[in-house]
Amino acid sequence: MKRAIVLGAAGGMGRELVKELLGRGMETVAFGRSRDKLEKLADYCGNDRLLKVAIGDAMSLNDISEAAEGADVLYHSMGIPYPEWSDKLLPLAASVMRGAKAAGAKTVIIDNIYPYGKVEASPATEQHPKHPHTRKGRLRLEMERVIMDAHRAGAPALIVRLPDFYGAGVPNSILHVTLDALAKRKSAMFVGRLDVPCEYVYLPDAAKAVVEVSARDDAYGDTWHIPGAGTITGAEVVRIAQEEAGHGKPVRSIGRKTFAMLGLFNPFMREVKEMLYLTEEPFVLSGAKYLERIGPLPATPYEQGIRETVRAHMADSGY
Q1: What is the distance between the alpha carbons of residues 240 and 300, in angstroms, rounded to a whole number?
Q2: 25 pLDDT exceeds 80?
Q3: Longest dimension (CA), the chain
Q4: Which GO terms describe its cellular component (predicted)?
Q5: Which of 5, 4, 298 is nearest to 165 (CA)?
Q6: 213 lies in a domain?
Q7: For residues 224 and 160, is the Cβ–Cβ distance under 8 A?
Q8: What is the pLDDT of residues 166-222, one digit of tens each?
Q9: Which residues form the domain of 140?
C-alpha cells in the first residue's frame, strides 16, 4: 500500500488514521467538506509533504472517485449526526462504495457494535449474533449489507468494529463530555452508572490496528473487531482524569430519566437515549481473531490514555 484516502479526515478517527498513514510513509489524501478543518488537520500533521487535502462531498461519485484516483485503500470514517441517520447513512455508504470502485480502491469501513444488539456472549467474537433492537442498530446492519453486496459485486471491502472510543479531539465520544469538563476544572456529567465496567478504545491504538488490517489482502470481505485495553468503571475514569487535572470537582451520573427529559427539546439527546443500554449491559469485544491472524493488538493502558487525553484538553483550553 502506497497511497490512501481518508473520508472524514477532520474527525477524531479520521485524524488519527491520517497521522498513522503518514507515519508509515504513505501518500495520504485527507477528504472532507470543510477547508478550514482540513487545513487545521494539515497543521496538526506538521504540513507533511505526503499529505494532500481534497475538498468534496462524499455523496458525489465524481468527488470521491477523483480524490481517490491512484489510491490503494479508501478509509470511510465519516460521521453523521444521529438525527440524520435515517436519511443519509445508507445513501452515503452506497456512494462511498461506488466511488471506491470507480477509483479501483479497496474500502475500509469504520463501524460500531450497534448491529449486534444486546450482548449474548462475552467477549463477543465476529460471529456474535446480530439481533439489533434499536433503530440505529437496524440501520447499521442494513449498511453492512450494502457494503458486503458491493464487495461481492467487485468492490473489495472490510468492516472494522470498535467499541466507543476516546482521545483528544473526539467530541462525539461518550467520554468527551466528562474528560473535557474535568480538564477545564469544572464539575462534570458522566453518561451511565459510575460502577459499571465498560470498554473503550484509545483512538491512536484503533488507527494503528485498522491500518494493519487494511494492509492485508486476505482481510477483505470480512469483519474485524478492535477491542480496547480491557474494561474500566466510570469511577476509575473520573479518578484518573481528576488526578491529571489536579482537582476533585464533582461528577454526576446521568441516565435514562435525564435523557428522556432533555430529549423533549433536543433531537440528539432523544437519539442518545436509545443507546444507553450499552452503558447498562456492557458489550466487550474479543480480539482473538486479530491476534491470531494479524498479531498483538495495540492497547494503551487506560491510566496513560486518559491522562494524555486530559492533558490535550487542558492544552487546548489554556490550562
Answers
A1: 14
A2: yes
A3: 56
A4: cytoplasm
A5: 298
A6: yes
A7: yes
A8: 999 888 889 999 999 999 999 999 999 999 999 999 999 999 999 999 999 999 999
A9: 3-167+199-230+283-299
The single-letter code of the amino acid at 31 is: F
What one-letter code names the amino acid at 173? S
Tell me the one-letter amino acid at 41: L
d(CA 119, CA 130): 10
> Both 158 and 273 in a single domain?
no
Residue recorded with cell 481528576? 242
Q: What's the pLDDT band for 264 if we cut at 50, 70, 90?
A: low
What residues form DSSP beta bridges with 107?
74, 157
Same domain, 270 and 287: no
Q: Both 122 and 187 in a single domain?
A: no
What is the three-state SS of the chain? CCEEEEECCCCHHHHHHHHHHHHCCCEEEEEECCHHHHHHHHHHCCCCCCEEEEECCCCCHHHHHHHCCCCCEEEECCCCCHHHHHHHHHHHHHHHHHHHHHHCCEEEEEECCHHHECCCCCCECCCCCCECCCHHHHHHHHHHHHHHHHHHCCCCEEEEECCCEECCCCCCCCCHHHHHHHHCCCCEEEECCCCCEEECEEHHHHHHHHHHHHCCHHHCCCEEECCCCCEEEHHHHHHHHHHHHCCCCCEEEECHHHHHHHCCCCHHHHHHHHCCHHHHCCCCECCHHHHHHCCCCCCCCHHHHHHHHHHHHHHHHCC
What pTM, to 2 d.p., does this model score? 0.96
Packing angle, helices 267-274 and 135-152, rounded to 10: 80
Q: Which three cell numbers stand for residue 309?
A: 487525553
pLDDT at 263 over 70: no
Cell of 19: 497521522
| Contact by Cβ (8 Å): 74, 214 | no
